[in-house]
From TrEMBL:
Organism from which the protein derives: Helicobacter pylori SouthAfrica50
Tree of life domain: Bacteria
UniProt cross-references to InterPro entries, sorted A to Z: NT_sf (IPR043519)
Protein name (record): Uncharacterized protein
C-alpha cells in the first residue's frame, strides 16, 4: 500500500469512519488505480470527512 493510501485510511480512522476498505484496481482496465470506501455515521459526518481530506490531498 502506498503512502497516500495509508495517509487517507489513517485520517479516516482518526475521524471515526468505520468499515474502511481499500480496493486495488491497478491491474484492471479502469480509470482509477485505487478506491477507498468508508462508512460514516450521517451525512454531516461524511461532509466533515471530505473537508478533513481536502487539505492534505491538495484538492
Amino acid at each position: 500500500m502506498n503512502k497516500r493510501i495509508e495517509m487517507i485510511t489513517a485520517l479516516l480512522d482518526e475521524k471515526k469512519a468505520f468499515d474502511i476498505t481499500h480496493i486495488d484496481l491497478s491491474k484492471t482496465p479502469y480509470l482509477v488505480e485505487d478506491v477507498i470506501i468508508a462508512t460514516t455515521l450521517a451525512s454531516k459526518h461524511a461532509l466533515s470527512l471530505l473537508d478533513a481530506l481536502k487539505t492534505p490531498l491538495s484538492l
